[in-house]
Design a protein that fits this description.
Layout (H helix, E strand, L loop, with lengths): L7 E3 L11 H10 L7 H12 L4 H13 L5 H12 L3 E3 L9 H10 L5 E5 L2 H19 L11 H16 L7 E5 H6 L1 H12 L5 H7 L21 H5 L13 H7 L7 H9 L7 H14 L4
Parallel strand pairs: 1-2, 3-4
C-alpha cells in the first residue's frame, strides 16, 4: 500500500541487510535454496533494467548480480534507489528484524530514513508463520527443520522486541508504530496519518492509489527462477480487503493453549554454552506483557 503512493516506490523483499556485501547476501540465500540470489532483488533488477519480469530478464538479473557480488549491500540498494528516483524507496524485508545486527546495519546505512514499526496480533501471526514454514518445507521436500525448535509466538516476540528496542532510541518523529489491524479496518483514517508523518502527499488521489496494492509490479508471483519476493498469500490474491478485523483474545489463547516455547533440543544447546533460561511461565508472562504493550490483550 505504501509503495503505491505516487511519491514512493515499494520494493519487494530485498534481504540486503543480512550481509555487508552482495557476496554475503548471495551466500545466505544459497543456503536457503535461492540459488540465484534474493528473489526480490532479482525481480527488482529485471523490472528496472528491462521493464518486465520474465524468465529471460530474471536470468539476466542473476548474471548482473553475480557480476557485482563485490559490491557492498548498501551500494546495491543505493543503485536501486537511484533507479527509482525521485520516488522514495520503501524497503520491507521482515528478515531484517530477526537480528539486532541487521537492524543496526540498516540504520548505519540510512541514519536519516524513516522507520515504520508495523505490528500484527501475535495469534494470527503465529498461524501465518506456521503455514509459511510448512509450505517452504513441502517445496523443498523436507518434513521438519530447525525453525520447529521455537514456537512462532517466541519468534513474533523476538522480532518485535528487536524493533522496539531499536526504535526506542530514535529521535521523536523518525519512527512511527501502527497496528496493521487499524490500517486495514480504517485505511482512510490511518493512511493519511502515515503520509503526513513521512511528509508526502495526503490528497484523495494519493490515498486512493495506496488502496490498490494489486497494481504493484511485484503483487503477483514472479517468473521462474524467482517466483517469490513477497508475501505468498498476498501474491495469491493481491487485493486490499477493508473491514473490521476481529482480534482473538491473546490472554485467553495463552491460558487455553499448551505452548512449548523452546524445544528440549534447543534448551540443551543453550545450556551447553552456559545460557540459563527462564521457565515456561516466565517466558509466557514476558511475551504477554509485551503483547499488551503493543495493544493486544
Amino acid at each position: 500500500m505504501l509503495g503505491q503512493h505516487p511519491e514512493l516506490y515499494g520494493f519487494p523483499e530485498l534481504h540486503l541487510f543480512v550481509g555487508d556485501t552482495v557476496r554475503e547476501v548471495l551466500d545466505r540465500e544459497y543456503k536457503h535454496g535461492n540459488y540465484g540470489g534474493p528473489p526480490g532483488v532479482l525481480r527488482t533488477l529485471a523490472q528496472l533494467h528491462d521493464g518486465v519480469q520474465t524468465s529471460a530478464t530474471i536470468l539476466r538479473a542473476i548474471g548482473w548480480l553475480i557480476g557485482h557480488q563485490d559490491w557492498g549491500s548498501k551500494a546495491l540498494l543505493d543503485y536501486l534507489l537511484e533507479k527509482v528516483a525521485p520516488r522514495i524507496g520503501v524497503e520491507k524485508s521482515p528478515v531484517t528484524c530477526a537480528r539486532p545486527l541487521w537492524i543496526e546495519r540498516a540504520y548505519t546505512s540510512y541514519p536519516q530514513a524513516y522507520y515504520l514499526h508495523l505490528t500484527r496480533h501475535p495469534v494470527p501471526t503465529r498461524q501465518s508463520m506456521a503455514e509459511f514454514f510448512e509450505n517452504n518445507r513441502r517445496r523443498k521436500g523436507r518434513t521438519s527443520g530447525r525453525d520447529d525448535m521455537m514456537d512462532r509466538l517466541m519468534s513474533w516476540y523476538i522480532m518485535h522486541n528487536n524493533i522496539a528496542s531499536f526504535t526506542n532510541g530514535l529521535p521523536t518523529g523518525q519512527t512511527l508504530r501502527v497496528r496493521g489491524e487499524d490500517i486495514l479496518s480504517e485505511p482512510d483514517t490511518y493512511l493519511p496519518q502515515i503520509c503526513e508523518w513521512l511528509g508526502i502527499r495526503t490528497d484523495r488521489e494519493a490515498i486512493l492509489a495506496m488502496k490498490h496494492p494489486e497494481l504493484s509490479p511485484y503483487a503477483l508471483p514472479g517468473p521462474m527462477p524467482a517466483p517469490g519476493g513477497n508475501d505468498p498469500k498476498f501474491m495469491q490474491s493481491p487485493a486490499l480487503r477493508v473491514g473490521r478485523i476481529r482480534e482473538p483474545s491473546f490472554d485467553a489463547f495463552i491460558e487455553s493453549t499448551q505452548v512449548q516455547w523452546l524445544s528440549e533440543a534447543l534448551r540443551e544447546e543453550f545450556e551447553e554454552i552456559g545460557l540459563s533460561l527462564a521457565t515456561e511461565r516466565e517466558v509466557a508472562d514476558e511475551v504477554a506483557d509485551f503483547a499488551h504493550h503493543l495493544g493486544y490483550f
